[in-house]
Amino acid sequence: MLKNSLMGAAGAALAAMPALAQDAPTAPYTYETVVHGGDVAWMSISTILVLLMIVPGLALFYGGLVRTKNMLSVLTQVFAITAVVAIIWVTYGYSLAFTDGGSWNTFVGGFSKAFLSGVDTTTLVATFTNGVYLPEYTFIAFQMTFACITPALIVGAFAERVKFSSLLVFVVLWVTFIYFPMAHMVWWWGGPDYLAQEQTAKLIAEAAGDTAAAEAAAANLAANGLIWNWGALDFAGGTVVHINAGIAGLVGCLIIGRRVGYGKENMTPHSLTMTMIGAALLWVGWFGFNAGSNLEANSITALAIVNTFVAAGAAGVAWMFAEWLLRGHPSLLGLVSGVVAGLVAITPAAGFAGPMGSIVLGLIAGVACFFFVAYAKNALKLDDTLDVFGIHCLGGIIGAIGTGILVNPALGGAGVPDYLSVPGTLQIAPYDFGFMVTAQIKAVLFTLVFSGVGSAILFYIVKALFGLRVKEEVEREGLDVAEHGERAYNY
Fold this sequence. Notes:
Blueprint: E1 34-35, H1 37-65, H2 71-98, E2 124-126, E3 132-135, H3 136-154, H4 164-187, H5 192-208, H6 211-221, H7 226-229, H8 238-256, H9 272-291, H10 299-327, H11 332-346, H12 355-379, H13 388-406, E4 416-418, E5 427-429, H14 433-466, H15 472-477, H16 479-484
């Protein structure tokens, strides 16, 4: 059986956990596949919702935060990245992320589905339920939106001073060498039926004393992405999207340098109205981002929707009251920033934590991100223009580690999925605090190093070949006119 690509998280710890003792089955595992129209409809809507997050959501959110002279440049950057990455995704990105990479399979996929070779209206991919599948085109389209939004997040860290041409070159390199491998390492596994098939074969071989067959089946069970095999949980992209983009943004803003006049000139956002509209669209679209990552329309989808509501609300309230207490006023910018921080934090935990745990996670993320943005950033003189690191990377770290804690059923969590102890069914594995938190921390540290170092190398390559930053006179004039020959506003 061909290995099925599957995004998401339920079952992410199973590859690193031993199956419980059981009687050996007497026959190979067999199954039938079914595609539910409701699942396809929900995933189609989720895909469109995530696109809404990017354009116009993220574009307006970022655009309102920059100065008037750079509004159009940010809109153009986000829109162009979306279009470029969409084409890259179907040419080779999907294949690198969600196919077997042979000897490199631990780290990245191969080119067996380059240009969507072998994909048509009859091919399917697994969901998290045995026997339940999706059309492969549905999965490709949904995952495409994740590939598009992640590099688009990065541009906020060095907005108002980056060359558009160099940015596009960097994005092509970054998704190729950073994003696609990260997606593979976190989200590539065989799917529940593949695991049931190989676990059954392993048990039969062990009972028969066939060591070679048992070892072959065990190797197939372990033929997953590196971080997946560590047992790390990431429901919708805490590591793959937010920490990955956040640390790349930090590296980029450090290499490119601070804006001309930083700390001396007024650089306040030109339209918080526009930013609020963008933030609202992000919150709406995030339901597709988080709940769509379940790949099915069922009770876990409902849980992810509730968690996406309450974590975002809690973080927004936490940021608002922290700012109110310490700075004397509750700002709209603080409120919407807090909501986004909560959305980031709940992303890896959306289908694992319970609602009360999600509220706690949101409160912690809101306060922590506020303190970094309001105090640590200034102390470090860090010109992360739109707080990509302070919200996405820091919020993602909090969410990723928190997922390992809040998945505990004793805290209202859904529990760690186990597909191996009873092949063909989904069980809940015993919760092991030490194992889960260690796996989450390892995933966070790996992402920081892999993306941080890799992004730095790519930035320096682009800087050496093309330059990264516009000239000072261009920066002072504004990127709208100098880079694009247009103005966002004509009065």
